[in-house]
């Protein structure tokens, strides 16, 4: 079985969205003193590679734990989003392929800037028209290899609101999308099972040997 990890490791010095507290990792118990090793983790629900629930922005909307686990596994495809301001029409050319997928992964190429200031600015994003069209396809989630599906300077987060408002989950801070084929693989993006979760860090994996349908 060929599996590609699409997640960034969580550590204290990792990049976080502007205004989000950095994770803290501290020893809680040590083998030398206690006979076993254990660390205390303090982190935001949107740390690293993570999933957004509709409750992230919309009052009274679904939290991640309200979705069945089948929403986190399924056939996926990769969309080249290396041109800024992708409009709806280029996506329509891939409509048939997208309709056969549960997950649309937007490859911006921005994961190459992970750990540098360039990661936070200039990444391509969907137009609201393109987001509305994607939202009409019945996808489980849209993922991106950038810090956000909206520019970091956007106060209203319109792409978030369009997709989350349609019940489409979001996966941000993916990596290694350039290693994936355009389609024909399974995505497993499993968020931590937090109660009442507006979002949660997730382990995202691509399984390349066949497609598992939920």
List keywords for this structure.
alpha/beta, 214 residues, 14% helix, 5 helices, Glucose Oxidase, domain 1
Q: How would you characterize this protein structure?
A:
- By secondary structure, this protein is α/β, with parallel strands linked by helices.
- The protein has a single domain (3-15, 44-207), classed as Putative cyclase (Glucose Oxidase, domain 1), CATH 3.50.30.50.
- Helices cover 14% and strands 25% of the residues.
- The protein is built from five helices and ten strands.
- The strands form two sheets. The chain has a seven-stranded mixed β-barrel with strand order 4-8-7-6-5-9-10. Strands 2-3 form a two-stranded antiparallel sheet.
- β6, α4 (128-135) and β7 form a beta-alpha-beta unit.
- α4 (128-135) packs parallel to α5 (158-165).
- The model has no long low-confidence stretch (mean pLDDT 91).
Give the topology, please.
Elements: E1 3-5, E2 24-29, H1 31-34, E3 38-42, E4 50-52, E5 73-80, H2 88-92, H3 95-99, E6 103-107, H4 128-135, E7 141-144, H5 158-165, E8 169-172, E9 185-191, E10 199-207
Parallel strand pairs: 5-6, 6-7, 7-8
Antiparallel strand pairs: 1-10, 2-3, 4-8, 4-10, 5-9, 9-10
């Amino acid at each position: 079985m060929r599996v590609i990890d699409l997640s960034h490791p969580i550590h204290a010095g990792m990049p976080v969205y502007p205004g989000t507290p950095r994770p803290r990792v501290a020893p809680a118990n040590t083998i030398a003193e206690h006979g076993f090793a254990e660390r205390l983790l303090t982190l935001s629900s949107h740390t690293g590679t993570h999933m957004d629930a509709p409750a992230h922005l919309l009052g009274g909307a679904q939290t991640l734990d309200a979705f069945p686990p089948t929403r986190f596994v399924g056939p996926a495809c990769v969309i080249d989003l290396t041109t800024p301001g992708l409009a709806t029409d280029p996506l329509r050319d891939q409509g048939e392929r997208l309709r056969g997928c549960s997950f649309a992964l937007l490859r911006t190429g921005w994961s190459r800037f992970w750990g540098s200031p360039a990661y936070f600015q200039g990444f391509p994003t969907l137009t609201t028209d393109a987001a509305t069209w994607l939202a009409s396809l019945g996808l489980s989630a849209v993922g991106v290899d950038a810090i956000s599906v909206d520019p970091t300077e956007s106060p209203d987060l319109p792409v978030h609101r369009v997709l989350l408002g349609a019940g489409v989950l979001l996966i941000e801070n993916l990596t290694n999308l350039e290693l994936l084929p355009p389609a024909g693989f399974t995505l497993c993006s499993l968020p931590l099972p937090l109660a009442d979760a507006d979002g949660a860090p997730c382990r995202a994996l691509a399984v390349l040997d066949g497609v598992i349908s939920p």
